[in-house]
Amino acid sequence: MRDALRRALGNGELRLYYQPQLRLATQEVIGFEALIRWHHPERGVLAPGAFLPALERSALALEIGGWTLDEACRMAAVVNGRCNRYKIGVNLFPTQFRALNFPDRVAEAVTRHDILPECLELEVTEDVALADDERSMRTLARLREIGVGIAFDDFGTGFASLSSLQRFSLTTLKIDRGFIRDIVTRPSDAAIVKALVAMSRDLGLETIAEGIETLEQEATLKAMGCPAGQGYRYARPMREADVGHYLFGLKQALEA
User: Fold this and answer.
1) Which of 140, 153, 166, 221 has the fewest beta carbons under 10 Å from its own?
2) pLDDT tens profile 52-100
3) Alpha carbon distances (Å) from 58 to 2, 51, 129, 151
4) In this structure, is the dihedral angle defined by the CA atoms of residues 22, 107, 142 and 97, taken in order, positive or negative?
5) CA geometry: angle 145, 86, 84, nearest 5 deg
């Protein structure tokens, strides 16, 4: 699998798809999460679950992680032009985040594509950030000095304590889709999400609810004060070529 992935990278079979993140109150797009896909010559388009387990703990993760970072920065330049309105979020591999020179690579990519640092948001899971607490804190602090955003992805599914939200240099808290799925019918999930939204707001963090699929879920989140979300209710991950059409269509719908 790793050998095939190495060939895939060289052959241009790996692509980033983009899922929009919207401000719930206004339905305006605030950014996109970059999600990797493999255009396999025989098996078709493969989602990350089909190949990431073989990749994440290999040396190849550094190479492909570097490519995804560069592509995300390039896309930030393309989608923003001169307006600097949208941020592009990109997931990090564990080995990529722990590389000694990782902040320098981020700074180089931002400079090479001539984007404002705040147009890039790096997404790390709790488990990755907490694996080496002190070193992770230094890495995140250095990244924040560069000016890029830092998101805790899938919050609530790992081992992070609430105090870690204060200790780590974060800008965004992403609430895992597992809590959003039954938010309308399961009071315990609703209570957890409501508490996370309030806590995130008080800490000055952006909050994004993942996996919103229905109007009822959206309405519940808005009532809780959740500012932003993403999910199939708004759009599935799309090719770069479709992003411009999506933004134009959404603008027309909002102005109608």
Assistant:
1) 166
2) 887 877 788 999 999 999 999 999 999 998 777 899 999 998 889 888 8
3) 8, 12, 18, 24
4) positive
5) 70
| Residue-wise DSSP of 147-188 | T-EEEEEEETSSS--TTHHHHS--SEEEE-HHHHTTTTT-HH
What local confidence, expressed as pLDDT, does residue 252 receive? Answer: 83
Taking the C-alpha atoms of residue 147 and residue 110, their distance in angstroms, rounded to an integer, is 10
- Determine whether 114 is exposed, middle or buried from the number of CB atoms within 10 Å of its CB (0-12, 13-18, 19+): exposed
CA-wise closest residue to 61 among 107, 105, 9:
9
Distances (CA, A) of 101 to 80, 130, 139, 227: 27, 19, 9, 34
Q: Is the full-model pTM beyond 0.90?
A: yes
Beta strand pairing status for 28-40 and 14-23?
Answer: antiparallel
